[in-house]
Write a structure and sequence with these properties.
The protein has about 180 residues and is of the alpha/beta class. The protein has two domains: about 5-100, Ribosome hibernation promotion factor-like (Double Stranded RNA Binding Domain, 2-Layer Sandwich), CATH 3.30.160.100; about 140-180, 2-Layer Sandwich (SHC Adaptor Protein). Helix content is about 30%, strand content about 30%. It has four helices and eight strands. Helix 4 links the parallel strand 5 and strand 6 (about 155-160). Helix 1 (about 15-25) packs parallel to helix 2. Required for dimerization of active 70S ribosomes into 100S ribosomes in stationary phase; 100S ribosomes are translationally inactive and sometimes present during exponential growth. It comes from Enterococcus durans. It is found in: Cytoplasm. Interacts with 100S ribosomes.
């Protein structure tokens, strides 16, 4: 059985909102044979530009379900987040089932967690790699890497950091700014 921790930022969490969240997120319990004892952390934010962001995190024994969605309507955001979480559960269930078939073993602990009636209709091909690229890393600094990324029209760029001689990645964040991941 899920427990709910619903909190709001710039919004008062009314009983109606709490009931709606519990009703919608509670539908995810049908995917589990024994509803895990987990806390669903729900964070509701309302911004000045009249958009609502909903973040849901559910830590489970074998995976952490997490999704966030922003839309003009709070209730629509809740619906969209629950849809995302359902897709994550189905994808994980499909992955467990495929691994058990490939290895010829019972998908031990994690598969027992899932209810077989709520079947995932996701195909195995969704997780297949359809393209492989090989690249040679050119030494450069992070500013040049951002320029290269923008010229290519990509959301990330892998490069060899000229200062550290390590592999690094620059990426475009959702807020339009840039991030840098450095490897050890």
């Amino acid at each position: 059985m899920f427990r709910y921790n619903v909190r709001g930022e710039n919004i008062e969490v009314t009983e109606a909102i709490r009931d709606y969240v519990e009703k919608k997120v509670g539908k995810l319990e049908r995917y589990f044979s024994d509803a895990p004892d987990a806390t669903a952390h729900v964070n509701l934010k309302v911004y000045t530009e009249k958009t609502a962001k909903v973040e849901v995190t559910i830590p489970l024994p074998y995976l952490v379900l997490r999704a966030e969605e922003t839309s003009p309507d709070l209730y629509a955001s809740i619906d969209l987040v629950v849809d995302k979480l359902e897709r994550q559960i189905r994808k994980f269930k499909t992955k467990i089932n495929r691994k058990s078939r490939e290895k010829g073993i019972n998908a031990a602990d994690a598969a027992v967690l899932f209810n077989n009636e709520a079947d995932g209709n996701e195909s195995d091909s969704e997780l297949d790699i359809v393209r492989t690229k090989r690249l040679s890393l050119k030494p450069m600094d992070s500013e040049e890497a951002v320029l290269q990324m923008n010229m290519l029209g990509h959301n990330f760029f892998i490069f060899e950091d000229a200062d550290t001689n390590g592999t690094s990645i620059v990426y475009r964040r959702k807020d339009g700014k840039y991030g840098l991941i450095e490897t050890d």
